[in-house]
Amino acid sequence: MTQWQYTKGLHDLGDQVYAYLLPDGSWGWSNAGLIVGGDQSLLVDTLFDLRLTRDMLDTMRAAVPAAASIKTLVNTHANGDHYFGNELVHGAEIIASQACADEMGELPPERLAEMMRAAPSMGELGAYLSEILGPFEFKGITATLPTRTFAGRLDLHLGDKEVRLIQVGPAHTRGDVLVYVPDDRTIFTGDILFIDGTPLMWNGPVANWIKACDLMLGLELETVVPGHGPITDKRGVEAVKGYLQYIEAEARKRYDAGLSWTEAANDIGLGDYSAWGDAERIAVNVNTLYREFSGDPTPPAFADLFGTMARLAKRGKG
Ligand SMILES: [Zn+2]
User: Which pick of 119, 125, 238, 239 has the fewest CB atoms within 10 Å?
Assistant: First the structure.
């Protein structure tokens, strides 16, 4: 068991490294980080809306003097729950992988705001969207994109503290990045790790994600801050790797047997993993695996993915 409490707010990990956690870690409830070295501070990700991000920045400034002026913001990937608050980090250089920056424009906050306005007339799908995204406010957000991009690896220095950005995507999304602080044996993983919640593979390939887990298992690591869920250690990395290997094998069997992706998503038993939250994400994961197996480059229809998840989520509760 980890020594860290899973409570909302700022957690001091020691040596001027902090995690900001938002339980319960399900849809949109993401984690962020603050790394201070010398008189410089670096923020890892913002949150899903302006209110949440403002609360987080206020909490950080009250507890950590160096957070008064954040010079660097790293976005781990292109999902809104990791960058929609960017506009509040005034004057910061915003760093992401090039692939992440390219993906960010595709689902801007206005689209989510429109979708939430339409949700009441969208039946079962709308009810599901309202349930998972209803707590957030997408109106009035100005998408604020990276000002500096890289591919592969980028080493930063805050005073004499090294911060290593390691691109491991495409995996969860197209340009996922890990933020590793070697001296403190600490890593911020973005959504390469969901802990106690079901991993969500929008992009794949699954082999890259498993490779990212192996990369982390090979690092000197004590403290692992996931994109969602409680702080963990290498056991959390092993758990996510196990889930990915399991669903890859189970989806492959059903693909080879000629089942459709929705049939496969319905059919795969989750065993021990059924205790993790948001189990309906199996739908997205199987869809992504099927497209990988068949070499189909067509992006899936949003309504198909979320409609299938809505049905599975309902079944899960029923
Ligand atoms: Zn996320």
Answer: 238
**pLDDT tens profile 119-172:** 999 999 999 999 999 999 999 999 999 999 999 999 999 999 999 999 999 999
3-state SS, residue 120: helix
Collapsing DSSP to helix, strand or coil, 209 comes out as: helix
Closest among 183, 182, 226, 179 to 44, alpha carbons compared: 179
258 CA distance to ligand 1 middle (Å) = 32
CA–CA separation, 155 and 38 (whole Å): 16
Question: Ligand 1 centroid to 112 CA: how many Å?
Answer: 15
- Tens digit of pLDDT for each residue in 209-248? 999 999 999 999 999 999 999 999 999 999 999 999 999 9
Domain spanning 9-317, CATH class: alpha beta
The token pair that represents 202 in the structure block: 């929008």
Identify the three-state secondary structure at position 116: helix
Residue 256 Cα to ligand 1 midpoint, Å, equals 31
Distance, CA of 2 to CA of 231 (rounded, Å) = 7
Classified as helix, coil or strand, 113 is helix
How far is the C-alpha of 126 from the C-alpha of 116, rounded, in Å? Answer: 8
The CA 30 to ligand 1 mean position distance, Å, reads 5
| Token reading at 303 | 């309504």
State the distance from the centre of ligand 1 to the C-alpha of 194, rounded, in angstroms. 8
Distance CA 108, CA 110 (A): 5
Query: What contacts 262, CB < 8 A, 6 or more positions away?
Result: 283, 308
Distance 151 CA to ligand 1 centre (A): 21
The domain spans of the chain are 9-317
